[in-house]
Design a protein that fits this description.
With 293 residues, this protein is α/β, with parallel strands linked by helices. The protein has eleven helices and seven strands. The chain is elongated, with a radius of gyration of 32 Å.
């Protein structure tokens, strides 16, 4: 095994050229990676293999000496996941190194068939393990991307709207779970502080169902807003939701509720010392005007 690593070090440049040519002649994503970047990545992998200590063996990939190579492949896999490569395409990048390595072993072994068979088995197993590690790292990197995208979508799906000076609204759409409730609470509290609002309307018209868990999440958000000095109004209470709340015995006695967002907005205006009047126009149309008392 030491002889194999020595042979790789002595023939590093030739292996690199043969490896890159093999990738170019095969199926590869030219739309995602150019020749220069492909050669640079291949050179980094070969350099990491050659940089291990002299007493390192190929049969133990868990040895500390191989950690730099594994970290390199993990970073490469994560970047390829962002670029749009598939796990199989990333694994094939590593597996394509087998052909030049086998050719090198054949030249080194000469007519010694027994040594050739043993070295091929060792190198093949080594490259296979590297490919598996690359695939695992790729999937982990893709999962991280998906998780980050989900967090960004959660933030975008909970916009806080300023309806009037001192009045903000948070329209909720979809199911509320613990993770989303945390985002909702943070967004609402930040908006209350930023706008110095005294009234916050939480509209659940777009929430399909309200069970005990959802009600608990809403109550936590309302309690947190009250601690920030804002009075909360819960709007969007449909007949089905009202029946569900009563059936489950959920206590909303301390929460102001309204059937529609417009009713909640009107109440917030009134409580903030504002009135709504209509100005009659000459052609019979009406124009709403808001005034402060």
């Amino acid at each position: 095994m030491a002889n194999i690593l020595d042979a790789i070090r002595k023939n590093q440049d030739g292996l690199l050229e043969e490896w890159v040519q093999g990738i170019k002649s095969g199926v590869r994503r030219r739309d995602l990676i150019d020749d220069r970047e492909l050669k640079a990545q291949s050179a980094e992998v070969l350099a990491a293999i050659c940089d291990v200590s002299a007493d390192t063996t190929l049969d133990n990939l868990n040895a500390p000496a191989w950690q730099p190579l594994k970290d390199l492949l993990a970073g490469l896999s994560a970047s390829r996941a962002v670029q749009g490569f598939t796990p199989s395409e990333t694994a094939m990048f590593v597996l394509s190194s087998k052909s030049p390595l086998f050719n090198l072993i054949q030249r080194q072994a000469g007519n010694d068939a027994k040594q050739l068979f043993a070295d091929v088995a060792i190198v093949g197993d080594f490259v296979d393990k590297l490919a598996l590690h690359t695939t695992d790292s790729f999937i982990h990197g893709r999962d991280q991307v998906i998780m980050r995208q989900q967090e960004e979508m959660l933030e975008l799906s909970t916009p806080v709207v300023t309806l009037w000076d001192g009045i903000v609204a948070l329209p909720l759409i979809g199911t509320l779970d613990s993770a989303r409730t945390q985002v909702v609470m943070e967004s609402l509290l930040q908006a209350i502080v930023k706008t110095n609002s005294r009234f916050a309307i939480i509209d659940i018209t777009g929430v399909p169902t309200v069970d005990t868990l959802v009600a608990q999440h809403l109550l936590k958000t309302i309690t947190a807003a009250r601690l920030m000095g804002a009075e909360c109004i819960l709007s969007g209470i449909r007949p089905q939701i009202a029946q569900t709340i009563v059936h489950l015995g959920i206590n909303l006695e301390d929460v102001i509720t309204k059937a529609k967002l417009s009713d909640a907005f009107r109440l917030a205006l009134e409580r903030s010392g504002r009135t709504v009047t209509r100005l009659e126009k000459s052609k019979g149309s009406a124009l709403a005007r808001y005034g402060e008392q």
